[in-house]
TrEMBL record:
One of its GO terms (biological process) is response to oxidative stress. Keywords: Ubiquinone. It comes from Sphingomicrobium lutaoense. This is NADH:ubiquinone oxidoreductase subunit. Residues 79-127 are annotated as: Disordered. It comes from the Bacteria. One of its GO terms (cellular component) is respiratory chain complex I.
Length: 127
Protein backbone atom coordinates (compact mmCIF):
# COMPACT_ATOMS: atom_id res chain seq x y z
CA UNK A 1 0.00 0.00 0.00
CA UNK A 2 2.94 2.32 0.84
CA UNK A 3 2.60 5.83 -0.55
CA UNK A 4 -1.11 5.36 -1.29
CA UNK A 5 -1.96 4.41 2.31
CA UNK A 6 -3.60 7.77 3.05
CA UNK A 7 -5.34 8.15 -0.30
CA UNK A 8 -8.70 7.01 1.07
CA UNK A 9 -8.09 6.92 4.82
CA UNK A 10 -7.86 9.56 7.50
CA UNK A 11 -6.91 7.68 10.67
CA UNK A 12 -3.17 7.55 10.12
CA UNK A 13 -2.14 10.88 8.63
CA UNK A 14 -3.81 13.36 6.33
CA UNK A 15 -6.45 12.31 3.83
CA UNK A 16 -6.14 13.24 0.16
CA UNK A 17 -8.40 16.27 0.61
CA UNK A 18 -6.49 17.57 3.62
CA UNK A 19 -3.20 17.04 1.82
CA UNK A 20 -4.40 19.08 -1.18
CA UNK A 21 -5.75 21.94 0.97
CA UNK A 22 -2.56 21.94 3.04
CA UNK A 23 -0.38 22.04 -0.06
CA UNK A 24 -2.15 24.91 -1.83
CA UNK A 25 -3.80 26.91 0.98
CA UNK A 26 -1.89 26.03 4.14
CA UNK A 27 0.91 27.91 5.83
CA UNK A 28 3.01 25.93 8.31
CA UNK A 29 3.26 27.78 11.62
CA UNK A 30 4.93 25.26 13.90
CA UNK A 31 5.75 21.77 15.01
CA UNK A 32 5.50 20.14 18.43
CA UNK A 33 7.85 17.70 20.16
CA UNK A 34 5.83 14.72 18.88
CA UNK A 35 6.38 15.78 15.26
CA UNK A 36 2.81 17.02 14.64
CA UNK A 37 2.76 19.93 12.17
CA UNK A 38 0.38 22.90 12.60
CA UNK A 39 -1.06 24.98 9.77
CA UNK A 40 -3.31 27.96 9.19
CA UNK A 41 -5.14 28.93 6.03
CA UNK A 42 -3.33 31.60 4.02
CA UNK A 43 -6.52 33.57 3.34
CA UNK A 44 -8.30 33.02 6.67
CA UNK A 45 -6.03 32.82 9.72
CA UNK A 46 -8.94 31.57 11.85
CA UNK A 47 -8.87 28.23 9.97
CA UNK A 48 -6.27 26.08 11.70
CA UNK A 49 -5.42 22.39 11.56
CA UNK A 50 -2.84 19.78 12.47
CA UNK A 51 -1.24 17.00 10.44
CA UNK A 52 -0.44 14.28 12.94
CA UNK A 53 2.81 12.38 13.00
CA UNK A 54 1.22 8.95 13.22
CA UNK A 55 -2.33 8.13 14.22
CA UNK A 56 -4.98 10.85 14.20
CA UNK A 57 -5.66 11.15 17.91
CA UNK A 58 -6.43 14.60 19.28
CA UNK A 59 -5.18 13.58 22.72
CA UNK A 60 -1.69 13.64 21.17
CA UNK A 61 -1.87 17.45 20.78
CA UNK A 62 -0.10 19.25 23.67
CA UNK A 63 -2.28 21.66 25.69
CA UNK A 64 -0.63 24.84 24.34
CA UNK A 65 -1.12 23.78 20.72
CA UNK A 66 -4.67 22.72 21.52
CA UNK A 67 -5.30 26.28 22.74
CA UNK A 68 -3.95 27.64 19.45
CA UNK A 69 -6.03 25.23 17.33
CA UNK A 70 -9.22 26.30 19.14
CA UNK A 71 -8.43 30.01 18.85
CA UNK A 72 -7.96 30.51 22.59
CA UNK A 73 -4.60 32.12 21.85
CA UNK A 74 -3.93 34.13 18.69
CA UNK A 75 -0.24 33.44 18.14
CA UNK A 76 1.73 30.20 18.26
CA UNK A 77 2.44 28.87 21.76
CA UNK A 78 6.19 29.57 21.70
CA UNK A 79 5.46 33.29 21.38
CA UNK A 80 2.60 33.75 23.87
CA UNK A 81 2.72 30.97 26.45
CA UNK A 82 4.86 31.26 29.58
CA UNK A 83 7.91 29.00 29.82
CA UNK A 84 7.33 25.52 31.13
CA UNK A 85 7.77 25.12 34.87
CA UNK A 86 9.95 22.36 36.34
CA UNK A 87 7.03 20.74 38.19
CA UNK A 88 4.89 20.34 35.05
CA UNK A 89 4.67 16.84 33.63
CA UNK A 90 4.82 16.02 29.94
CA UNK A 91 1.38 15.70 28.34
CA UNK A 92 0.37 12.11 27.64
CA UNK A 93 -2.02 10.84 25.00
CA UNK A 94 -5.15 8.92 25.94
CA UNK A 95 -3.96 5.41 26.79
CA UNK A 96 -7.37 3.72 26.60
CA UNK A 97 -7.15 0.55 24.56
CA UNK A 98 -3.40 0.19 25.04
CA UNK A 99 -1.45 -2.05 27.43
CA UNK A 100 -0.66 1.09 29.49
CA UNK A 101 -4.34 1.95 30.12
CA UNK A 102 -5.47 2.44 33.71
CA UNK A 103 -6.90 -0.78 35.10
CA UNK A 104 -8.08 -0.42 38.69
CA UNK A 105 -7.93 -3.32 41.11
CA UNK A 106 -10.90 -5.54 40.42
CA UNK A 107 -10.96 -4.77 36.72
CA UNK A 108 -11.40 -7.87 34.55
CA UNK A 109 -8.22 -6.85 32.72
CA UNK A 110 -6.32 -6.63 36.02
CA UNK A 111 -6.80 -9.21 38.76
CA UNK A 112 -10.59 -9.47 38.48
CA UNK A 113 -10.87 -9.35 42.29
CA UNK A 114 -12.37 -6.27 43.85
CA UNK A 115 -11.31 -4.92 47.21
CA UNK A 116 -13.14 -6.14 50.27
CA UNK A 117 -16.19 -4.05 51.23
CA UNK A 118 -16.18 -1.92 54.35
CA UNK A 119 -18.23 -2.83 57.43
CA UNK A 120 -21.17 -0.58 56.47
CA UNK A 121 -21.96 -2.66 53.41
CA UNK A 122 -24.38 -5.54 53.58
CA UNK A 123 -24.81 -7.64 50.46
CA UNK A 124 -28.36 -8.25 49.29
CA UNK A 125 -29.51 -11.85 49.49
CA UNK A 126 -32.71 -13.12 47.90
CA UNK A 127 -35.18 -14.72 50.27
Amino acid sequence: MGMFANLFTWWNGASLGTTIVTRFRGEQVGRDDAGNIYYRHRDNEDRRWVIYNGSNDSSRVPPAWNAWLRGTIDDVPEKVMPPRRPFQKDPRPNLTGTPDAYRPRGSLLNTGERAAATGDYEAWKPE
